[in-house]
Amino acid sequence: GKLRRSELSGGNPQILCDAARVVAGTWSKNGVIVFVPDYRRTVMQVSAQGGEPRDALAAEFDPVEERHRFPYFLPDDRTFLFYRDLKGIWAGSLDSPDVRLILPDNSPVVYSPEGWLIFVRNDALVAQSFDAGSLTLSGEPLPIVTGQKNDVGNRRFSVSDNGVLLWQSQWQRDYQLIWHDRGGKQIGTVDAPMKVGVGQDPHISPDGKRLAVKRDQNLWIIDLEKGTPQRITSTFTQLPVWSPDGSRIVASTGPGMAVVNANGSGETEALLTGPRFPRDWTSDGRFILFVYRGVKSRLDMYALPMFGERKEMLLLESPFDEQQQQLSPDGKWLAYSTDETGEYETYVRSFSDDGKLGSEKIRISTAGGRSPVWRRDGRELFFVTSDGMLTSTEIKPGGANFQFSPPKPLFKTRMVGWFGNVHEYDVSPDGQRILIGTLVGESTTPPPTVILNWTAGLKN
Fold first, then answer.
1. Does residue 246 register a pLDDT over 90?
2. How far apart, in Å, are the Cα atoms of 388 and each of 111, 174, 338, 393, 419?
3. How is residue 393 annotated by DSSP?
4. Which of 74, 90, 159, 232 could disulfide-link 132, Cβ–Cβ 3.0 to 4.6 Å?
5. CA pair distance 332, 176, nearest whole angstrom
6. What's the rounded Cα separation, in Å, for the pair 242 and 237?
7. What is the pLDDT of residue 131?
């Protein structure tokens, strides 16, 4: 939740400013840092000595449509390149509101002092001659590294002032959705193994017959009886959550949070704009629970009433992460994870009919706890410890007080992407089968490539 600087010689890092989740940044020799404080944000600037960040560009941008990444200072230390999502690589300045298109490519970019722009085109790392003073390109892009798939969502390359270039191809692992029994034995699979960089957010439908997943930045519904998949979105969508009757799905989209029909028909219903991430749809259909990352408070928990004026309601805000909230089937208890102790742990609080949290929080986990999931009858709560152990606790229903048994470990998991606001497993309605997005085998991703005197290899 902070942008910090650290001396290479060691010592405590210095906090410069609040930043929910730094996406990328660039540091000028004049002591100005231009950075993107979170996904779906525009570029900001702050002094390298610290202070209150402000816009790096005087130009006005639509806060919903504009998403910036990969800023990179040019030699004058006032002009910088940056990527406008789906609009190419542009040049901006700390001194002017004008912005200028440099390249239409959907790619990060770096500048070499020898007069080259380095970027990715058609899965090849290329260099093109560039005059940083006039901001003009010349000649054709020349290949540096070919034959290695690139991840356009990350800048996995860097260049030094003295001719050293570093390149890392797309990070992917073999991954499969695997059914396990309560002892960890594999008892089935959903589809064949595939290469992924991130997990698929598997969510089982309320009746246990369908599965919602994220694949290729879209939502798919898989019929678990027939094994047939159907894509239901055509633009970036993630974090699917079923409606109580299984007819609709709320998800995070490019513009914000929206509802789509689970059969892929009809229009998308926009709910809220901005980086809001749904986590649950209450069993009575009255509330959608989601998290929103504030600049100073990191992830906070909210509820959106699906009745009346539909104004979002803050449930819990603090300097820590509160995330992955799941409401019990009877609607009385909210389970969630927070890192207020320095380690993510699972807690439960009471939840009222008008969508308010009780003040008392009950800690469930003792050795780390994330991703709480309720059994459909509300008599068991699952979570995953910090070492990947799937764990459960039995819940005694009814009564004004929350009563639970000591947590019991079930089996060790191998999940992908064990950080952030992820959801990599779900439980069958009867709690006897657990579906987990599982890493298969060991990593075969090639190591980073270091090229010395890289310009000598350029060929016209």
1. yes
2. 41, 18, 17, 16, 11
3. E
4. 74
5. 34
6. 14
7. 96
Please name the residue that has the structure tokens 């009746």: 207
Q: How far is CA 318 from CA 108, 271, 300, 414, in A?
A: 34, 24, 7, 31
Longest distance between any two alpha carbons in the chain, whole Å: 77
Please, what is the average pLDDT of the chain? 91
Residues 6+ apart with CB under 8 A from 163: 114, 452, 453, 454, 455
Residue 14: the pLDDT is: 95
Q: Can you give the pTM of this predicted structure?
A: 0.87
Structure tokens at 345: 């742990």
Average pLDDT over residues 149-156: 77
Q: Of the candidates 286, 203, 208, which has an alpha carbon nearest to the alpha carbon of residue 249?
A: 203
pLDDT in tens, 45-99: 999 999 999 999 877 777 667 788 899 999 999 999 999 888 899 999 999 888 9
Q: Are 361 and 316 in contact (CB under 8 A)?
A: no
233 CB contacts (<8 Å, ≥6 apart)? 218, 219, 251, 253, 260, 264, 268
Q: How far apart are CA 224 and CA 114, in angstroms?
A: 56
Please, which residues bridge with residue 188 across strands? Answer: 179
Contact 206, 428 (CB under 8 A): no
Residue count of the chain:
460
The structure tokens listed for 262 are 């689970």
**Each residue of 64-83: b (16+ CB within 10 Å) or e?**
eebbbbbbbbbeeeebbbbb
Beta bridge partners of 350: 333
Alpha carbons 3 and 19: distance in angstroms, whole number: 6
Q: Which helix (H) or strand (E) holds 163?
A: none
Q: How many angstroms separate the CA atoms of 334 and 351, rounded?
A: 6
Q: Which are the contacts of 93, defined by CB distance < 8 A and separation ≥ 6?
A: 57, 78, 79, 80
Handedness of CA 150, 152, 155, 160 (dihedral sign): positive
- Would strands 370-374 and 362-363 be described as parallel, antiparallel, or unpaired? unpaired
pLDDT for the residue 123: 84
Give residue 64's pLDDT.
64
Residue 355 dihedral angles phi and psi, to the nearest 5°:
80, 40
Residues facing residue 373 across a β-bridge = 382
List, in order, residues 6 or more apart from 318 with CB less than 8 Å away: 297, 300, 338, 340
